[in-house]
Write a structure and sequence with these properties.
By secondary structure, the protein is an alpha/beta fold. The chain has eleven helices and 14 strands.
Length: 290
């Protein structure tokens, strides 16, 4: 049985919705309490058994590389000060046995193009794709681990979906699965950002995918679509004509941190779960609302 050990993290976007905060700092490095968004995505991947992390970056994203690299000066300073707890946190950002690779997307040409950039590092095995903008609290079983369990059973591509408001279809890829009675179903079609009147369902694709390597050859033949970009959704639409592709309604809470509102909601939710801050932060919120 094929195991999923590689994950692609497309992190080359410009982050224009968070300007000026993202003018000099990657949006993926924006913190939710005390960890950057990209670290949450990496931790989810590692918890699911991923050992090879592939980051599709741009020239302005060196901070991401630095974050997952060793900082000997910082580590030495913490060691000298006896701050062992902080030293353990810093040294544990990238666990032993997990490797990072970086490849640059020379210009923003869409999610499909970003995934295609990683072809030579993935080669011919199934792989995962995680978008750091989508922060998912999967509870005891992280979202990607749920999806890998589904993949292990079916050995086919799995796409995470959630029910969305009917007027939000123009923001998502929308799947057609017919009548949905279970958490997972084979898709019959998928379309990128349709008008509400044209949407085949109210199930929107979110930033977690498990894909077979056939997607690469399809992406190479995919022309620019919605927004003038090469859309991963368009290649998946071709993939499902050749082999089974499943939509999976994951268990958990998703925060759309690509929007300011979603980012603020995630910050509050994670602060209320933080082992050091939760109690005092809850009291502060109650005082503010009084």
């Amino acid at each position: 049985m094929v195991q999923i050990t590689k994950a692609i993290f497309p992190v080359a976007g410009l982050g224009t919705r968070f300007l000026p905060a993202t003018k000099a700092n990657p949006k993926e490095m924006m913190p939710i309490v005390d960890k950057p968004l990209i670290q949450y995505a990496v931790e989810e991947a590692v918890a699911a058994g991923i050992t090879e992390l592939i980051f599709v970056t741009s020239s302005s994203k060196r901070a991401i590389e630095d974050h997952f690299d060793s900082n000997y000066e910082l580590e030495a300073a913490l060691q000298e000060r006896g701050q062992q707890a902080l030293l353990d946190i810093v040294k544990g950002i990238l666990p032993d046995g997990v490797s990072c690779a970086y490849i640059r997307q020379k210009s923003p040409q869409g999610l499909g193009h970003a995934v295609l950039c990683a072809k030579q590092l993935v080669v011919d095995v199934p792989f995962a794709v995680l978008l750091a903008d989508d922060l998912i609290d999967g509870g005891p079983t992280p979202c990607l681990k749920q999806m890998i369990e589904q993949f292990n059973e079916r050995q086919a591509s799995i796409i995470a979906v959630q029910k969305i408001q009917p007027d939000q279809t123009k923001k998502y890829g929308i799947v057609d699965v017919g009548s949905v009675t279970e958490s997972i179903a084979a898709i019959r079609g998928i379309v990128e950002k349709p008008d509400p009147k044209d949407a085949p369902s109210h199930l929107g694709v979110v930033g977690r995918y498990i894909l077979t390597p056939r997607i690469f050859s399809l992406l190479e033949k995919t022309h620019k679509g919605s927004g003038g970009e090469i859309q991963l959704t368009d290649a998946i639409a071709k993939l499902q004509l050749e082999e089974a592709v499943f939509a999976y309604a994951f268990q958990g809470k998703r925060y759309d941190c690509g929007t300011k509102l979603g980012y603020l909601e995630a910050t509050i939710a994670y602060a209320l779960q933080h082992p050091e801050l939760a109690h005092d932060f809850k009291l502060s919120l109650e005082a503010m609302m009084a």
